Amino acid sequence: MDISRLTKRSDFAWEIEPRAGMRVPGVIYADEALIRTMDDKVYEQVCNVAKLPGIVQASYAMPDAHWGYGFPIGGVAAFDAAKDGVVSAGGVGFDISCGVRCLHTGLNKNDVEPLNKRLVDALFSQIPCGLGRHGKISLSSEDMDAMLIGGAEWAVSAGYGTTEDLECIEEGGRMAGANPQAVSDKAKNRQREEMGTLGSGNHYLEVQHITEIFDDQVGKMFGLHAGDVVVSIHCGSRGLGHQIGTEFLRAMVIAATEHGIDLPDRELACAPIASPIGESYLGAMRAGINCALANRQIITHLTREVLADVLPKATLTMLYDVSHNTCKVEEHLIDGQRKRLYVHRKGATRAFGPGHPDLPAALQSIGQPVLIGGTMGTASYILVGTKENEALSFSSACHGAGRAMSRHQATRQWRGRDVIAELASRNILVRSPSMRGVAEEAPPAYKDVSAVVEAAHRAGLARKVARLEPMVCIKG
Fold first, then answer.
1. Is 399 a known active-site residue?
2. Residue 148: which CATH number?
């Protein structure tokens, strides 16, 4: 990205001054090195989002930002319904409520490492992963609608986990306002046999060990210590979410024209929040959120079954579960007044600070765990939300490293079997049904996640708590 087009606010915040139809400024959080590696398309998309009706404060991009569909991945924007604000399917993305769940095991690295091969093989056998893979669960029409309304609550009631799990899930495990009737039969049919599956792309289940604690106090309050082993699950709403996104993006192109919205990019298809299609999308998207929460809950149950066999001393308990592809109604301070806003986060993680009323009681004094995923051979991080970030980016942070090259470029440069062999030489065991998928997700195809996290930390978006490194990885 051409840095001369930006105004430097600080070493970790850069502004695009409003121009050519922008209603608000653009703000990119990153250091200079990360800015220079960003595609010019990120600049263009941040500017285009700033042109949408009803946007408030700024169009934001996180340190892991890269080119996406309409919105940049790593993009954040909030809209005020009282000011003709819009909802955009492109601002949520195709994998609705893709997110990360992190679980304690109660074990140390030394307890797990001797059993790594048995563990990775058992997880790969038990948890379906890969493009279009089906699981052992098949939902009836009644169960499908109940799942779309109930989310992780439904999964627990169906025997997948415990009520204690729900306390540390975003929205308590169930997103209110879901409308299964707004979800097409085609979307439901795509999902009917995909519950409890990881999917493909950058989704994974990793067993990780903590290599460093940056904040002893918060680490202890989160129950994290150097050497501890945790399990991280990264996946979303599978075929259902993709179908919802596809259908509503097409419909919103028409709706935008009907409502006189001049789209700077067709991929930014949107509709007024209060319009019939806007309300219908919100109902369908919330159903997609519940689908993702239920999916991660079922995978947690399957993982517990594996650990009970391979590591019977393990006790898999929740740290937190948070999504990074959503539109949520939240209250934020705008020009000195509390406003009810529709906050779009696409490849950006909610990061509420201490005292936020939506956090469970156990986290009120600390802030929300912010879970940043790595890439098979690189670190993941746990951060904590900050109070000051509400004014910086509507309490949002990065969600991962962010791609540095396309999947096609990656497959031209690496072979999946070579990637797996190199990781095995570092005692990281990977299992995947697709060698092409592994090549696409080769760690060097991504930005330096440590640099991204450091930028988020230094910008005040979230504070570093712990660094985690992979031991075994199930990759879609």
1. yes
2. 3.90.1860.10
User: For the chain, how many structural domains are there in total?
Assistant: 1
Query: 22 CB contacts (<8 Å, ≥6 apart)?
Result: 16, 47, 50, 51, 59
pLDDT at site 103: 98
Tell me the three state secondary structure of residue 197: coil
Distance of CA 82 to the CA centre of its chain: 28
Catalytic residue among 234, 242, 399, 457: 399
Phi–psi pair at 405, nearest 5 degrees: -150, 160
User: Which pLDDT does position 436 carry in this prediction?
Assistant: 94
CB 214, CB 262: distance < 8 Å: no
Helix (H, G, I), strand (E, B) or coil at 253: helix
What six digits make up the tokens of 103?
A: 């679980």
Q: The domain containing residue 243 runs over which residues? A: 3-475
Q: Is 423 helix (H, G, I), strand (E, B) or coil?
A: helix
Average pLDDT for consecutive 10-residue bins of the chain (476 residues)? 95 96 98 95 97 98 95 97 95 97 98 98 93 86 98 98 96 97 98 94 95 98 98 97 97 96 94 97 98 98 97 97 97 94 98 95 96 93 97 97 92 95 97 94 94 98 98 94
Chain length of the chain = 476
Measure the CA angle with vertex 72, ends 66 and 76; round to 5°. Answer: 120
Closest by Cα among 302, 403, 356 to 72: 403
